[in-house]
Design a protein that fits this description.
Distance between the termini: 49 Å
Structural class: alpha/beta
Oligomer: single chain
Strand content: 15-25%
Number of strands: 10
Order of helices and strands: EHEHEHHHHHHEEHHEHEEEE
Radius of gyration: 17 Å
């Protein structure tokens, strides 16, 4: 087990920011963890997803499933039903990153799903098998959080691992673990639209700086005792919806 761990927050298709953060990663002595949500909203989801897969296969990185990996897979499996929600959550950018500019307007949801599934079989199989959490020393890394009402946190449902918010943020942490999570941008945790810093409370650490919304993406280095370094890369632009459901 590595004595240092480097965890990167929600990327959301911001490939250039992803690359900047990876410059501080040293595979010789750090375990890399990607907290999930590599896709949607940002323009370069394809590159982010393929790089995430490569890091797992070549560098033994841990890539946790996020709620956006989940809604992408659900869209592929049930495109007509899931399409409006996926577009609402920034899926149009992922579709056009994987296919081509104009694909959202050109094809039906079923055609989009068929094209993606035929061209990216290995990637889709990889995403379906992503883990929901990772344990390291006294740390637990998870995309959204856990159900703190469970006697055993491992009994948390998959939906809660991927989607939980307020109940986890406000619940009492009785797990004897420091829980590191993404999913909910700092501005919501602090109730301050200008805040991007790490949120720390009751042995919970929120690392989503809201990068795709014009905030930041964090790369946080941990040792078994705590945070060693927080690397914060700021975005120069904010995502705005540009696709409509049809």
């Amino acid at each position: 087990m590595s004595d240092l761990l480097y965890v990167i927050g929600d990327i959301h298709g911001e490939y250039e920011m992803f690359q900047i953060l990876l410059k501080d990663y040293d595979e010789t002595y750090q375990q890399l963890v990607l907290i999930g949500d590599l896709l949607d909203r940002g323009a370069r989801s394809k590159e982010c997803l393929l790089l995430g897969k490569q890091l797992v296969e070549e560098k033994r990185a841990i890539y946790l499933k996020g709620n956006h990996e989940d809604i992408f897979l659900r869209f592929l499996d049930d495109p007509e039903e899931r399409y409006p929600n996926y577009i609402l959550n920034g899926g149009g950018e992922t579709i056009e990153s994987l296919l081509h500019t104009g694909a959202v307007a050109e094809y039906s949801p079923t055609e989009i799903s068929m094209l993606i599934k035929s061209r990216y079989k290995e990637l889709i199989s990889f995403l379906r098998e992503l883990p929901l959490y990772y344990e390291w020393y006294d740390y637990l890394f998870v995309h959204a959080g856990i159900n703190l009402e469970k006697d055993n946190w491992q009994d948390t449902s998959e939906r809660d691992f991927l989607w939980i918010r307020k109940e986890f943020h406000e619940g009492k942490n009785h797990t004897n673990k420091t829980i590191v999570f993404g999913h909910t941008p700092a501005m919501y945790l602090f109730n301050d639209t200008t805040t991007t810093k790490l949120w720390q409370m009751d042995r919970k650490i929120g690392i989503d700086g809201g990068g795709v919304y014009g905030g930041s993406i964090h790369g946080v280095v941990f040792n078994p005792q705590g945070i060693v370094q927080d690397i914060e890369v700021f975005n120069e632009h904010a995502w705005e919806p540009k696709f409509e459901t049809h």
